[in-house]
Specification:
Rossmann fold; eight-stranded mixed β-sheet; alpha/beta; N-(1-d-carboxylethyl)-l-norvaline Dehydrogenase, domain 2; about 15% strand; globular; four-stranded mixed β-sheet; 2 domains; about 45% helix; 20 helices
Length: about 375
Amino acid sequence: MKVKAKKKPSFAVIGAGNGGQAVAGYLALNGYMVNLYNRSLERIIEIKQKGYIDLLGVHQGRGFLNLVTNNIERAIKNVDVIMVVLPASSHKFIANKIAPIVTPNQYVVLNPGRTGGALEFKNIITMHNPVKKVCIVEAQTLLYACRILYNGTVKIFGKKNEVKVSALPAKRTGEFLNIINDVFPEFTMTSSVLSTSFNNIGAMLHPIPTLLNSGRIENTLGNFEFYIDGVTPSIAKIIEQADIERILIARKLKTKTISLREWLGYTYDAYGDTLCQALRNTKGYHGIMAPQSMNTRYIYEDVPQSLVPIADMGKHLGINTPTIDSIIQLSSIVHGTDYYKYGRKITDMGIDRLSTVDEITNYVMNGESNSSNEGVVA
């Protein structure tokens, strides 16, 4: 009996930054139909004219794109998988843009969701149409460490061995992985979006070294290796204390999590007796320079979309987060923005009405809530 070949999925990649160009180029290089969308035409005009993206580094070659556009409706029409590769601060905008046009048979993948991204995305789509059952998938982190050399040419410095993903609802994770596993075998199942959100390692690795190296960044315009030179033993102690707060919240939610140092080991095969040693042994981080200024997504994305939701969930659970709170406060002063006020909170995620951990778990597993209660989680 002849076995029917599995249909190759088609993709829309939303966002033409470092990660978006890397993902689009990789998919196209491997023979998948790819539409690339960016809100600003200026960013993609050269790629649109050429019709391809060149990859250097871990993956090398030229990937030809099906469509390059700043029209999101054209980009996502009839594709199977919508890969959102944007700063998490853009998730709300994109969710509102696609909510009226996305279909229930499409998968929306947040690469990554940071903390609570899938929950916020689903909450927005539900507000537009309460009966539309769209599967939102959240990746724990971006697969690649990459940088644009110039538009249409991306260098991929490193690729993670594994990236945990979960669908919302979690009962649909298996079907998504069955569709995606040929092209992204690194995507592996985890329990729920609570796991991907609270194993958000970027929340620990990005804003804290940036803030604590502010003088060096401003004096050198970021002329040092961010992860290698920017994390000293003292800075590592602060990162690890914030990491403990993150882990305590995850445990309260009955979600498995690992420490940052353990994550470096299984993700990059990078080990060391200390966090500093482990980072210096992470080959994928070598050559990645610090931000050139304090106006960086390591603050304006990772603080409001990663640290704020962690801290807000801590408040909901009755867990104090003094180290994380201090980073939010100092970042707010540096940028002149009240990040706690404007950051992603449990109300944005649509779970403020859930009053027990079991209700939150049922919601992320099945996508349904049977509670309208509000209050502190027991």
